[in-house]
Design a protein that fits this description.
With 276 residues, this protein is α/β, with parallel strands linked by helices. It is 51% helix and 13% strand.
């Protein structure tokens, strides 16, 4: 049998629920005040059962305490007191855990937080049949909290980059709205380099000389080299049709973010009538 004593009866019931959802063998459960006792009926605790129990215990810690501890780190260690900031950073951390941010720098050197917890508690369940959960938190999970702090640091860096990117996009949107359109409609073919055509399907040559645009960017606090994005901003069209096979590409998404409803993406194969 294994007995775990918690700070409250509610925690004992919560772990009991986690176990019942995963382990299908006949089990003996007993909750007395703040202590949960569990084991296989009429059998000693096998290695397989202890392994399963460790996995459940790890999930219980993550499901029950991780978000609270992450918010505490965000607020108390990094001093983000605004509720919106906290939620945004927490969302990025969760996206990292869910494998949605695999391209972030330094992510590959961070340990798996599940493995950190497993290593911290494995020997407890190998050597003991009873323990205090508060003692586990206080003495065993320091490496786990350090691990969480490293993930929060990474999320904060990403959050700051997102804020900078959004500020950049907002500036470009204001420029687009302030400029008089040089063309009502522009067709863009995603080639190397990009090809631009006017509403009559005429090829637009020397796009960088159409408007003395790039020096003006400094007035908006933007340092940038000529690109398809800035060229289109200089032309300030009302409608942009982009023929591309990579609408999810970073540049394409930036075009969408800047020009919003002005942009329409179309398959590159349909540009045959444009690219004569």
């Amino acid at each position: 049998m294994i007995s775990v004593t918690f700070k409250s009866r509610h925690e004992a019931v919560s772990l009991n629920t986690h176990i019942a959802e995963v382990i299908k063998e006949p089990l003996h459960f007993q909750i007395h005040k703040e202590t949960l006792t569990i084991g296989l009926e009429d059998e000693p605790l096998s290695v397989d059962f202890r392994t399963k129990f460790i996995g459940i215990f790890v999930d219980f810690i993550i499901d029950t305490y991780e978000e609270k501890w992450l918010l505490d780190i965000i607020s108390s260690t990094f001093y983000f007191k605004d509720k919106h900031d906290q939620e945004e950073i927490l969302e990025i951390v969760q996206a990292i855990f869910d494998g949605e941010k695999t391209d972030l720098p330094r992510l590959d050197i961070l340990p798996s937080r599940r493995n950190v917890i497993k290593e911290a508690v494995r020997d407890i369940f190998e050597d003991r049949t009873s323990l205090s959960f508060q003692s586990v938190i206080r003495f065993r999970l320091n490496k786990y909290r350090t691990c969480l702090q490293k993930y929060v640091e990474l999320a904060i860096d990403e959050y700051k980059l997102q804020q900078e990117y959004q500020a950049f996009i907002d500036k470009l949107r204001r420029i687009v709205k302030a400029y008089r359109p040089l063309h009502h409609t522009i067709y863009v073919i995603d080639d190397h380099p990009f090809k631009l055509f006017d509403k009559n399907h005429n090829y637009i040559k020397n796009v960088h000389s159409i408007r003395s645009f790039y020096p003006l960017l400094k007035q908006w606090g933007i340092e940038a080299e000529p690109s398809i994005l800035l060229t289109l901003i200089g032309l300030a069209p009302k409608n942009i049709f982009v023929y591309t096979d990579r609408p999810d590409n970073g540049m394409m998404q930036t075009l969408q973010n800047v020009f919003e409803e002005r942009v329409t993406f179309l398959p590159k194969s349909t540009a045959v009538t444009i690219n004569k």
